[in-house]
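Reviewer 2 asked us to include a model.

Predict the structure of this chain.
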Amino acid sequence: MPLIETSAFLLLLWALIGYALGSIPFGMVLAKVMNLGNLRDIGSGNIGATNVLRTGNKTAAALTLLLDGAKGAVALLLARALTGSEDAAQLAGLAAMLGHCYPVWLHFKGGKGVATFLGLMLALHWPVGIGACLAWLCGALLSRISSMGALLAAASSTFLMLSLGAEDALVFGILLTLLVFWRHRANISRIRAGTEPRIGQ
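Predicted model (structure tokens):
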């Protein structure tokens, strides 16, 4: 955990900025702009890239993935650049994740945070981010289950931080991992039951 060097006012400000950035529902915006229908009425009803893919529009899904990842990364990198403090950067990143998962504009019913999580890992410490992305890819390809990739990426991030020199972000990483697992609790139940949809279904 980094030293608390930033004033309480600035920490609150960056938490609000991070939340505002994270709460932008890019999946819903793109679906509306590209006339793909209401994501709440499609597939799982989720606002993330996996559900956007269920519309059949791969371009929209890819853009959602990139933009959802970017909003977390931008929040963290902006706070780091403008304050020079890692405490503000990590708080802004955590707030962005919360904004994505619980956006006030959507009555606190947002996405599951996978793309935002990966974007945050890349911005935080790129070797950890690359490792988490590879873990997601391996999990998703081997199981053909998107949520399995997400859970593997989140679970591996703690070990990646410990082995790749990002120990000062360990608390941040654990909080994000717990949030990813919490948001995937229904998926975990379906994986155990063997009823979780596979990629392409």
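The mean pLDDT is 91. Residues 58-83 form the longest helix (26 residues). We have added this to the supplementary material.
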